[in-house]
Amino acid sequence: MEANREHRHDHDHGNDHAHGHVHQHPLQGDFKDVPRRPGREQLAHIEGWGADLDRKDRPGVPMERTPPRFIHQHEGKLPQQPQNVEVLTSTERGNAITPIFGTVQPPSGLSGMLRRMAFKWSENDLRHWLILLAADRINVVEGVGEDLARGKVPNVLAEMGIKSEWQYNRAGLVKKAVIAGAVVGTVAYLLRRRER
Amino acid sequence: MLAMNYRGPYRVRADHKPDPVIEHPGDAIVRVTRSCICGSDLHLYHGMVPDTRVGHTFGHEFIGEVVDIGSDVHKLKVGDRVLVPFNLFCGSCFFCQRELYGNCHNTNAQATAVGGIYGYSHTAGGYDGGQAELVRVPMADVGPMIIPDDIHDEDAVLMTDALPTGYQAAEMGDIQEGDTVVVFGAGPVGIFAAKSAWLMGAGRVIVVDEVEYRLEFVQRYAQCEVVNFRSVNDMAEHIKKMTDGLGADVCIDAVGGDAAGSIAQTLTGRLMKLQAGSSIVLHWCINSVRKGGNVSIIGVYGPTFNAVPIGNALNKGLTMRMNQASVRRHLPRLIEHIRAGRINPKGIITHRVPLEEVADAYHIFSSKLDNCIKTVLIPPSAREVKAVQSSAPQ
Q1: Structure confidence by residue, pLDDT tens digits, B17-60
Q2: CA-based R_g, chain A, Å
Q3: A79 and A99 in contact (C-beta within 8 Å)?
Q4: Looking at residue B264, which CATH number applies to its domain?
Q5: How many domains does chain B divide into?
Q6: What is the sign, positive or negative, of the torsion defined by CA atoms of B294, B299, B301, B303?
Q7: pTM over the 0.80 mark
Q8: B99 touches chain A (CB under 8 A)
Q9: CB of B168 within 8 Å of any CB in chain A?
Q10: B318 and B336 together in one domain
């Protein structure tokens, strides 16, 4: 063991060599090779410790089990939900509609056109997701337009929770306002200078 | 009815919308009494989930009272007090037949990787969620569970997602007696994962986060060790130091794509959306767990791709398990734990907010203001019922 402690190594430590210094590493053998495990008596104060130590008490073990427990199974074929609005369907299921589906916010406008385009590609294709993300951003602008068309000016600051920001993070809000003001002011100044 | 209304990234408000109706004979309409904001709602709120449409109502953690049923509903009746698992499932498909209720193949026409989830974008089926006064609940005989009389509303609402998800995270870690378990993320799911790790016989439970008040909370609530990743130089190196150089037996990712902790991951994953969120926590899990150890992923990522050190996972011989929680099958056991006093779900609720103030509720939760851990939204109709009940003659 003592011989081991004399271990030295000779790889390059840059300037160390110039000073004749050989860096001493700790030895792997100094570390435990078996993890320390606390005993049950040390864990007795933990509420509920070990209640599900036995895998039989873990309801999700194994992950797949059949027949299914805890549910009332539907007898026979599931009734098909009637389709009264446009629902986009995945090519990975052959564009088939499922027995049950969501019907809220059907595709509409320019974002809807993009969403329809996205569904030409499967979930396996990056284009599907990138086009959907682009549609989401366009949809935000459409949402503002819809509000205005209904005579409602969206209170964007309230929607972003400015009241709670003022209540709980006043200094942060002031800081953000100062930074935003400085950025807007600088851009305005530069634009005006360019016009001249 | 009043409902949360998504207007764009970081913008939501409470708005009036048409009441939901029965669209399928297996549907019920539930009047919501309590709903929560989940950490995974923040992925939607931050604009990270593709096909999140303006006007959508979020909310996949809710309980309520049945107010209408379709012609094919036989196990529920009007007036029943129910908790509704976050995943919609049919109970009949190949996957439901294997108790994979979070992977149902019959409730989401728009994608195949993910099943239907209430209020979780059109990628998860296009169903409005429970941050509203009323919700359409399909397959009402299969999914919802009547809440036992001795279970408190606030315990019940946490059993719709956060508690079973945290429990399943620990379960997927295949914890053995004395194991060292590292949970990344001290949000509600991470807190419940830490608590569940003890139930499964862990020897050490270490929770990692950057938010000091959350670390203080979980240290107290789950009786665990905590590490603030801002105070360590290198996460994997630190965990190895804490575990005699070997690494943890089990690492749990309870954060997902919204993780902080790496400038490169934040830039590419969260800001530029070049990957499906920041995968720094998964990176830490793979590099902090011991050889032959288990990594359990319960944090939510987007549907595209992430940069993770999969080569290290191979070289270390890791087992990686992940899934959306199969909520329904965990409920009976979790109710036993609540009744036995082993776990107190409602103890993590810090904020009870009227639905009308949903914009501030989201901002507080997202920005971690006012020591927020878990927020419950209370619709006006639920408050009116309570007021009527409390003023009724005794």
Answers
A1: 999 999 999 999 999 999 999 999 999 999 999 999 999 999 99
A2: 32
A3: yes
A4: 3.40.50.720
A5: 2
A6: positive
A7: yes
A8: yes
A9: yes
A10: no
